[in-house]
Amino acid sequence: MDHSVSEREAGQLVRVSAGPVSLEGNLALPERAEGVMPLGDGSGSSRFSPRNRLVAQALQEGGLGTLLIDLLTEEEERIDLRTREKRFDIPLLAERLVGAIDWLRAAPETRDLKIGLFGSSTGAGAALMAAPRRPDAIGAIVSRGGRPDLAGPALREVAAPTLLIVGGRDSVVITLNEQALAQLNVEKRLEIVSGAGHLFEEPGASSRCPRWRATGSCGT
């Protein structure tokens, strides 16, 4: 497993082995980090998207490290732009997140940190499918504008506290999150952000999301 890093503006550029592929990510660790969260987005947004970078910055300001990671390879992203099929391959995305979890547990910079998972869109379903495969490693899970329902039966196996955040204008996804919430057998919470849409693109929408930690609590 390759833990070599090089400096980039968004943090350290890392390559994460996930099964047969190697994924690019940006690792950023604030001083005395309390935990670390890989951020995976299955909707076609890369680690360089403004929304993902904004979330990572907020987490870092709160004392958490972040691993912004592309869950698809460049070739898979090209295919997905045409077909939109890869972003809904939840088992594949979950396998990639498990690889990221294992990388964080082995890397010298992060192996002593508690891990939380953050997923948007289909990446939320992948996070909730991946978490039961490494239950001792995961301290909390956050879904923002996500599709936790896509995790299917894995929802009942999740062991970590889980926070689901949905925009108040995203009525269809609110219903899907309510259904997923009912299947979770852990400390859980559904937070609806008034005035926000599916992508939280409205001015100030992201700042109204509750705070979270990777250390075992999903409270405000």
Description:
This protein has one domain: Rossmann fold (3-Layer(aba) Sandwich), CATH 3.40.50.1820. The chain is 28% helix and 28% strand. The chain has helices at 50-61, 74-83, 90-106, 122-130, 171-183, and strands spanning 5-8, 11-18, 21-28, 35-41, 64-69, 114-121, 138-146, 162-167, 188-193. It has a nine-stranded mixed beta sheet, with helices on both faces. β4, α1 and β5 form a beta-alpha-beta unit. The longest helix is centred in the middle third of the chain and has 17 residues, at 90-106.
Based on CA atoms alone, the radius of gyration comes out at: 16 Å
Can you tell me the number of structural domains?
1
Number of strand elements: 9
Can you tell me the CATH architecture?
A: 3-Layer(aba) Sandwich
- Overall 3D shape: globular
> Per DSSP, what share of the residues sits in E-state strands of 2 or more residues?
25-35%
CATH superfamily: Alpha/Beta hydrolase fold, catalytic domain
- The CATH first-level class comes to Alpha Beta
By secondary-structure content and strand pairing, the structural class works out as: alpha/beta
Output the number of helix runs. 5
Order of helices and strands: EEEEHEHHEHEEHE
CATH topology call: Rossmann fold
**Which strand order do you get reading across the main beta sheet?**
1-2-3-5-4-6-7-8-9
Throw out a few tags for this protein:
Rossmann fold; 9 strands; disordered C terminus
Structure described in brief:
The protein has 220 residues and is an alpha/beta fold. The chain has helices at 50-61, 74-83, 90-106, 122-130, 171-183, and strands spanning 5-8, 11-18, 21-28, 35-41, 64-69, 114-121, 138-146, 162-167, 188-193.
